[in-house]
Amino acid sequence: MSKKQPVSRRQFLNYTLTGVGGFMAAGMLMPMVRFAVDPVLKGEAAGEYHPTQQKVSELTDTPVRVDFSYEQTDAWYTSEVTHTAWVYKNDKGEIVALSPVCKHLGCTVSWEGNDHKDKFFCPCHNGMYEKNGKNIPGTPPLKPLDVYPTAEKGGLLQLGKPEANNV
Amino acid sequence: MNWNGKDTALFLQQKEYIDTAIVPVVPADFGSGMIGAAEQYEFIQLLVTFLEKQFKGRLLVTPPHAYLPDRDELVSDAAEWTGRLKKVGFKHVFFFTSDSRWREREQETGAAVIWVPSVPLGDMEESVKYSLIENQAKQIVNIIVQKWQESVS
């Protein structure tokens, strides 16, 4: 009778326990591995660029206002925020996107506001900036306007996170 | 400047530059006018948020002044707000409201009352809502800039 049993009771139990144990271990390890490599996978997807509706081909050397919005989470409150950029092409044909936030106390500047030719003007305390964003000495702002990193996708302009300007 | 810890700290440092206070004036009606009152609040808050973004460096948005619409002391309470704001150095105090009664009693409040008829925003789409508020706000921007220029000359 014992010869008819090629698998002994002990072996059978060993096999099944290993099998079931293996599944359980895999069930625990898989999510851990996935969490561990997650930052690597995320790095590949978009460099935090937000799409706008501005066609790159329509940009000229006169700054235009570009509004763009995206979802932002503030604690547990998610809302759609709208940001603005002043975008133009410089002498070399490169796209320049300036943040409209005045470096003095954070008002919104506008191009040729209040009839100041070829300048960005801040209505709060009469701050002024050159076209390239450089602050004009003698007016309140102490730093040049921030610049957005730019990208192009399907002919449309994309803007990243504003950075300090070195002009 | 908004009414939060960070902005008010900056305000105290840069007081000389920030000479304008904006007070949202909203009714606290818990009776039959509740919906209207809530709509007014929603509208005024959005409008004020937009203006704050434009003129962050020169104005402080105070906490809303909520009033019980049927109380008699209504105007004197508001005048007290104006008085205290002017005392700490604000040259311009604006009341933003959708209640037309304030417009009639502007003199007594001591502030510049800007009356904006409220629009029920309800289920309006974000983009429509935004452009609606922006259009309203642009006209108010001019009023504020004009007040600033008047005080210079």
From TrEMBL, chain A:
<keyword id="KW-0472">Membrane</keyword>
<dbReference type="InterPro" id="IPR036922">
    <property type="entry name" value="Rieske_2Fe-2S_sf"/>
</dbReference>
<keyword id="KW-0411">Iron-sulfur</keyword>
<keyword id="KW-0479">Metal-binding</keyword>
<feature type="domain" description="Rieske">
    <location>
        <begin position="63"/>
        <end position="159"/>
    </location>
</feature>
<dbReference type="InterPro" id="IPR017941">
    <property type="entry name" value="Rieske_2Fe-2S"/>
</dbReference>
<keyword id="KW-0001">2Fe-2S</keyword>
<protein>
    <recommendedName>
        <fullName>Menaquinol:cytochrome c reductase iron-sulfur subunit</fullName>
    </recommendedName>
</protein>
<dbReference type="InterPro" id="IPR006311">
    <property type="entry name" value="TAT_signal"/>
</dbReference>
<dbReference type="Pfam" id="PF00355">
    <property type="entry name" value="Rieske"/>
</dbReference>
<dbReference type="GO" id="GO:0004497">
    <property type="term" value="F:monooxygenase activity"/>
</dbReference>
<dbReference type="GO" id="GO:0016020">
    <property type="term" value="C:membrane"/>
</dbReference>
<keyword id="KW-0249">Electron transport</keyword>
<comment type="similarity">
    <text>Belongs to the Rieske iron-sulfur protein family.</text>
</comment>
<dbReference type="GO" id="GO:0046872">
    <property type="term" value="F:metal ion binding"/>
</dbReference>
<feature type="transmembrane region" description="Helical">
    <location>
        <begin position="12"/>
        <end position="33"/>
    </location>
</feature>
<dbReference type="Pfam" id="PF25471">
    <property type="entry name" value="TM_PetC"/>
</dbReference>
<dbReference type="GO" id="GO:0051537">
    <property type="term" value="F:2 iron, 2 sulfur cluster binding"/>
</dbReference>
<keyword id="KW-0408">Iron</keyword>
<comment type="function">
    <text>Component of the menaquinol:cytochrome c reductase complex. The Rieske protein is a high potential 2Fe-2S protein.</text>
</comment>
<keyword id="KW-0812">Transmembrane</keyword>
<keyword id="KW-1133">Transmembrane helix</keyword>
<dbReference type="InterPro" id="IPR057415">
    <property type="entry name" value="TM_PetC"/>
</dbReference>
<keyword id="KW-0560">Oxidoreductase</keyword>
<keyword id="KW-0813">Transport</keyword>
<dbReference type="InterPro" id="IPR014349">
    <property type="entry name" value="Rieske_Fe-S_prot"/>
</dbReference>
<keyword id="KW-1015">Disulfide bond</keyword>
<comment type="subunit">
    <text>The main subunits of the menaquinol:cytochrome c complex are a Rieske-type iron-sulfur protein (QcrA), a cytochrome b (QcrB) and a cytochrome c (QcrC).</text>
</comment>
<dbReference type="GO" id="GO:0016705">
    <property type="term" value="F:oxidoreductase activity, acting on paired donors, with incorporation or reduction of molecular oxygen"/>
</dbReference>
